[in-house]
Amino acid sequence: MFKFTINARLPNGRGRAGLIETANGIIETPAFIPVATKATIKALTPEQVRDDVGAAAILANTYHLYLQPGIEAIKQSGGLGKFMNWSGPTFTDSGGFQAFSLGFEKGRRVNKIKKVESNGEIIETDNEASPHPLMAKVTDEGVSFRSVVDGSAHFFTPEKSIEIQQAIGADIIFAFDECLSPDEPYERQKKAVERTNRWAKRCRDVRHPESQALFGIVQGGRYEDLRKESARAIGAMNFEGFGIGGSFDKRDIGTAVGWVCDELPENKPRHLLGIGSEPQDLILGIENGVDTFDCVAPARLGRNGTAYRNVTHPGADGRSTLNLLNAVHSADFSPLDPDCACYTCRHYTRAYLSHLFRAKEMLAATLTTIHNLYFVVNLVKEARQAILEGRFGELKEKALAPYISLGL
Amino acid sequence: MFKFTINARLPNGRGRAGLIETANGIIETPAFIPVATKATIKALTPEQVRDDVGAAAILANTYHLYLQPGIEAIKQSGGLGKFMNWSGPTFTDSGGFQAFSLGFEKGRRVNKIKKVESNGEIIETDNEASPHPLMAKVTDEGVSFRSVVDGSAHFFTPEKSIEIQQAIGADIIFAFDECLSPDEPYERQKKAVERTNRWAKRCRDVRHPESQALFGIVQGGRYEDLRKESARAIGAMNFEGFGIGGSFDKRDIGTAVGWVCDELPENKPRHLLGIGSEPQDLILGIENGVDTFDCVAPARLGRNGTAYRNVTHPGADGRSTLNLLNAVHSADFSPLDPDCACYTCRHYTRAYLSHLFRAKEMLAATLTTIHNLYFVVNLVKEARQAILEGRFGELKEKALAPYISLGL
To answer: pLDDT tens digit string along A180-195?
Structure first.
């Protein structure tokens, strides 16, 4: 069961407010989807994610779950939601991005040779004779890569990615794509778009459409013609929705995202993959037609002691975040953000949070993660409400003002 | 406001069920009090401690809070409960035990000299010329010790301990005592009992009785005459309740605890300090007259992946705990304990918990801590109910059977 309804549109024709309905519940869009990399939102229980963060859905990483605990444990548990005690809608990504990026890193590490020179210096060189590929190796068939957990060799194909995602059993899954850095040149991007199209077809052909919605992924880097070509090709392939991929930069949100959304079928949802680390990225993404977002940044920043401030009330220093490890917070008995209604801001002071970080207490990560995730989830909810009430322009102006005044 | 009422007694005249009333709420006794060492129950929110663990009160460590974040931050927050968002009753210990034990360790570390021998071997020796004491140094005046946080020098006296505990503002505080290993010989124990009596008087004389209940501490190691002498002396000193100290062994619970409780005024509550790491210790403590317990062991075991099993249904291997890092649990889709009604056992499988521990996810510690703390809190609640209903003997037999059959 999968249905997408649009309730209201922005005057620019791109942005919209709507509803995604799945067998496991409804997602009011636009929505921020927290990332449960290894079948857990780090440092939170599912109830905290639902009640304290206010998230409607979560996204887990196929690559990580495939390596640990492995697909069998999740399948036997009755799928991702049951495994991790999350009763709402779930997404999994295709595993492609991590196979490329992490496989590459691991390949580098296991294939280095350490040599001690006569002067005692240690030199690291590539092991040309290594039986292992130096990095994730991509052919038309698929991607071979090394596990970040134990260095073992693996091979992902579009068919394999769908098979794994079906076993994991999320409501929304993604087609396997070739994901390049946006800095790669035109010819490489063009080839990746073509391969992504071929892989998208293979994914579509092997999936069982009954219980899961499959989203095709648009690539094309920073090239308008490639982005549009990719969106047209993927848009024509009868997917239930679309992912916009490319691990690109915030400056691309106003350009590449808009190009893509203009070409994609209007009546299907669009997910911006792994981008949108700062509040203003979300506002710009929504304006340009994005329905759902995922990003690890808010939670990761939180775990490291960096908390978001209300973008309409940045600190006296003009910053939109604060670092709880700064000494000034140890004697500050105000909440992280006086305008925030989250669990953390209602019950704890900066002084207490600062103490928890200094004492290396786990609750520090829990409380700051709740604040940061609530912050982005709620900002996107506010944007939804503003679209419904015809005042998105006003919200955008307020939300971006501090960044604009800082020249960001 | 402090009141203790006894509702029912065991036939042996020692054990009882009752109520401690404080300005911040009621503790039904006997009760297990989880330890919030640094003003947080590690890995849990206060709501999880209250709702998922079911604890009525928490105990924080004066020594740790004094060093980090320091007393000022807690005082300015309105006291311990407000600082950490715990609205129920609170305890603090006197700081004595940690000043002795941790101060000693730190003293050893900072005063070692490392010398590299000509053969390259590194030798560690005591620095006789060190300006710092080699260990925590105890005189009749108080204890000088070094901070575990930064090695700085500090001096605790009975008066200072009360002053700090008043600033922290818990409902129940403890007199400063000299705490020896139970293995110390008779003469040392006798001197410690005498000093503890003198310090107890000094504590009583400086405290403001309005808002906090002060508990005197009984010492005396494994010597019946010293334990009874200590209990009589402390019992005569007009405290609101008593602590039984000594960091002693489980085999002492049936002996030393009983001796002490026979001598203490019957109408005042007794707290067993930092002992009772295993379920059977709690049952024996309750039988011998203990009203409240604290112990870090259940939570610490949980964080390390060791979960309690129902003592009436130990595993096929006869053990009363299970280690989630054992490979056998990765494919076990049953809960930690099929007889347990805790949040963790209602929602998660051993396979999932095992995955979280392997993946080093913080939620692992949260979920296993909830289970272990619920387990001991609930066992003590069941014992209370059994006392009220005149069937404690039956509960004891069931609870101790597996240990007795294992010869523990």
So the answer is: 888 889 999 999 999 9
Q: A359 is in which domain, residue-wise? A: 302-405
Non-local (6+) Cβ contacts of A100 within 8 A are A136, A138, A143, A145, A178, A179
Provide Rg for chain B, Cα atoms: 22
> Exposure of A132 by Cβ count < 10 A (0-12 exposed, 13-18 middle, 19+ buried)?
middle
- Window 253-272 of A: residues touching B by CB (8 A cutoff) are none
Inform me whether the C-beta atom of residue A132 falls under 8 Å from chain B C-beta atoms: no
The residue-averaged pLDDT of B125-143 equals 66
ipTM of the complex: 0.92
- The structural domain count of chain A equals 2
Q: Is residue B14 part of a domain?
A: yes
B312 is a domain residue: yes
Structure-token match 């698929």, residue found: A142
Nearest to A332 by CA among A349, A315, A318, A316: A349
Q: Per the CB < 8 Å rule, is A42 touching B361? A: yes
Contact at CB, A352 and B84, closer than 8 angstroms: yes
Query: Which among B362, B368, B369, B370 is the top mutation candidate for probing chain A, defined by the most A β-carbons within 10 Å of its own β-carbon?
Result: B362
Residue B359: which of A68, A348, A367 has the nearest Cβ?
Answer: A68
Model confidence at B132, pLDDT cuts 50, 70, 90, reads: very low
Chain B nearest C-alpha distance from A169 (Å): 16
> B330: which chain A residues are within 8 Å (Cβ-Cβ)?
69, 73
**Global pTM value:** 0.92
State pLDDT tens for residues A260-269.
999 999 999 9
* Minimal C-alpha gap between A31 and chain B (Å): 24
Any domain includes A150: no
- pLDDT tens digits for A301-338? 999 999 998 755 555 555 678 999 999 999 999 999 98
